[in-house]
């Protein structure tokens, strides 16, 4: 029973992070994304962000404690080593989440008229604050433990946003996500998900994380190249039935016939936020959906199959 409970809690943790991310996006970004050029601080908007953010942050942390940690004993702060889990895809998930929450925080503060430098540092650190708090909770929980790899990924995601905004005044390179159903979830639905929604959140075999770079941003001024077209490099993995080993069940033996392989991708992409529009609603929608890699023809390389071509890759 304890193992079943542990698996359910792991699912709830992943699912909750995804839900929280979307809630924060809609709550803080959509109301005023198209109005972020103010040079004077709007106290009403800023107070709304501060009060609303504090309430959301506190409520989220209290809820997460009740959901994830209350059934475990509190211990002295400790770390756990999980860098060999899921071939690094969970770490890329941390970095991507930290990056996009930082982007949300930045645009929210700009909407309120906060100066650029302050918006970059304070807003860009929102994801780092949120995810690091969770790691601290993990560190004091007997059932978990703080992860150095997670912390590094959190800093990397926030640093990527802040560094680009300070250096280029824009985000030329984005972290993105895509998903396709994999063949492996059927063998371990308790770990990889039994429904399509569960598999979207739990099956790392179907997840791909991308570096999506805007081509126009690196060309000379006045270039006629489409401003919205990106080139993307992706990383994924397949053959994973467990975090570090392909065990059919807890305490079982490795399953033969499944080889854990990294996969590398090359494709094109669209930066939705660079599509010209005067609609504030569309700007908000494009930003909310900006973390999704747009399907395009794609080339994959892995050590077993060498090069493969997909007409459309999700």
List the helices and strands and how they pair.
Blueprint: H1 2-28, H2 43-69, E1 79-80, H3 89-111, H4 116-124, H5 126-139, E2 146-147, H6 148-168, E3 173-179, H7 189-192, H8 196-202, E4 207-214, E5 229-238, E6 261-270, H9 280-288, E7 296-302, E8 306-313
Parallel strand pairs: 1-2
Antiparallel strand pairs: 3-4, 4-5, 5-6, 6-7, 7-8
Helix pairs in contact: 1-2, 1-3, 2-5, 3-4, 3-5, 3-6, 4-6, 5-6
Provide an overview of this structure.
With 314 residues, the protein is an alpha+beta fold. The protein folds into 2 domains: 170 residues, no CATH class; 143 residues, no CATH class. The chain is 45% helix and 17% strand. The strands form 2 sheets. Strands 3-4-5-6-7-8 form a 6-stranded antiparallel sheet, with helices on one face. Strands 1-2 form a two-stranded parallel sheet. Helix 2 runs parallel beside helix 5. The chain starts with a helix and ends with a strand.
Question: How many helices does DSSP assign?
Answer: 9
Strand content: 15-25%
Computed Rg: 20 Å
| Tally of individual domains | 2
The class by helix and strand makeup works out as alpha+beta
Main sheet: strands, sense, barrel: 6 strands, antiparallel
N→C terminal distance:
36 Å
List the secondary-structure elements in sequence, H or E: HHEHHHEHEHHEEEHEE
Tell me roughly what share of residues is in helical segments.
40-55%
Low-confidence parts lasting 5 or more residues at pLDDT below 50?
1-35
What overall geometry do the principal axes of the alpha carbons give? globular
Task: Trace the largest sheet across and list its strands.
Answer: 3-4-5-6-7-8
Q: List how many beta strands DSSP finds.
A: 8
Average predicted confidence as pLDDT: 84
């Amino acid at each position: 029973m304890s193992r079943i409970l542990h698996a359910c809690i792991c699912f709830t943790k992943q699912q909750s992070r995804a839900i929280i991310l979307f809630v924060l996006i809609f709550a803080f970004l959509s109301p005023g994304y198209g109005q972020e050029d103010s040079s004077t601080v709007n106290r009403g908007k800023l107070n709304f962000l501060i009060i609303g953010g504090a309430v959301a942050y506190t409520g989220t942390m209290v809820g997460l404690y009740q959901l994830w940690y209350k059934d475990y004993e509190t211990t002295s702060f400790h770390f756990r080593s999980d860098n060999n889990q899921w071939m690094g895809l969970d770490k890329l998930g941390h970095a991507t989440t930290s990056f996009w929450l930082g982007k949300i925080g930045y645009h929210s503060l700009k909407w309120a008229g906060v100066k650029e430098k302050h918006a970059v540092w304070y807003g860009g650190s929102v994801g780092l604050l949120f995810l690091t708090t969770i790691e601290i909770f993990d560190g004091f929980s007997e059932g978990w433990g703080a992860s150095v790899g997670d912390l590094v990924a959190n800093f990397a995601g926030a640093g990527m946003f802040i560094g680009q905004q300070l250096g280029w005044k824009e985000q030329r390179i984005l972290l993105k996500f895509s998903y396709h159903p994999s063949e492996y979830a059927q063998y371990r639905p308790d770990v990889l998900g039994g429904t399509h929604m569960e598999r979207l959140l739990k099956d790392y075999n179907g997840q791909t994380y991308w570096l999506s770079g805007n081509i126009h941003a690196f060309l000379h001024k006045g270039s006629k190249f489409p401003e919205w077209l990106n080139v993307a490099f992706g990383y994924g993995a397949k053959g994973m039935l467990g975090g570090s080993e392909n065990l059919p069940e807890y305490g079982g033996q490795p399953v033969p016939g499944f080889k854990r392989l990294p996969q590398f991708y090359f494709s094109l992409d669209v930066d939705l936020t660079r599509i010209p529009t005067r609609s504030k609603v569309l700007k908000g929608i494009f930003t909310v959906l900006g973390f999704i890699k747009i399907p395009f023809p794609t080339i994959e390389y892995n050590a077993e199959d060498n090069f493969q071509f997909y007409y459309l890759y999700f």
